[in-house]
């Protein structure tokens, strides 16, 4: 029994990890992606499309998808349709789906109720089940 559990764990660890980065503009998504992949893969600049990078981290394949950022005080309704479309398209870049969504929040900024609602609305564009796969990461970068 213990061997089958160990084998199951080993198989899980050897699998390909797929991560999607979500967050407002200048919230540290690029820096977090670079930190995860242990190399400078993501360039800090405003973009309107997703960016996917692949690397091997401690012997495991990792795909990181960076999504375009939204204005932190904007509701999803106020956000450009192109940005919203790219956020949802991020799922296609890590088929059959990501293991985790990392939500970046800039630690040096005041996290108001308005910003909380903005994060909630933008992340919810990915569907109801997304929240069980989310981790919030507080950053000081970008």
From TrEMBL:
The family database entries (PROSITE patterns) matched by this protein are listed as: G_AIG1
Q: Is Transferase a UniProt keyword of this protein?
A: no
Single GO term (MF): GTP binding
Which residue range or ranges hold the AIG1-type G domain? 14-142
Keyword terms:
GTP-binding, Nucleotide-binding
Xref: InterPro entries: G_AIG1, GIMA/IAN/Toc, P-loop_NTPase
Gene3D superfamilies named among the record's database cross-references: P-loop containing nucleotide triphosphate hydrolases (3.40.50.300)
User: What does the similarity note say?
Assistant: Belongs to the TRAFAC class TrmE-Era-EngA-EngB-Septin-like GTPase superfamily. AIG1/Toc34/Toc159-like paraseptin GTPase family. IAN subfamily.
Can you name this protein?
Si:ch211-214j24.15
Q: To which species is this protein native?
A: Nothobranchius furzeri (Turquoise killifish)
């Amino acid at each position: 029994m213990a061997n089958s559990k160990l084998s199951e764990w080993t198989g899980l660890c050897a699998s390909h990890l797929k991560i999607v980065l979500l967050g407002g503009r200048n919230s540290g998504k690029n820096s977090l992606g670079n930190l995860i992949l242990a190399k400078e893969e993501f360039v800090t600049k405003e973009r309107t499309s997703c960016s996917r990078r692949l690397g091997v981290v401690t012997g495991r394949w990792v795909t990181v998808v960076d999504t375009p950022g939204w204005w932190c005080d904007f509701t999803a309704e106020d956000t450009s349709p192109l940005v919203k479309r790219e956020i949802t398209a991020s799922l296609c870049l890590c088929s059959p789906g990501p293991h985790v969504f990392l939500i970046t929040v800039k630690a040096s900024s005041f996290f108001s109720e308005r910003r909380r609602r903005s994060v909630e609305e933008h992340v919810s564009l990915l569907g109801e089940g997304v929240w069980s796969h989310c981790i919030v990461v507080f950053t000081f970068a970008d």
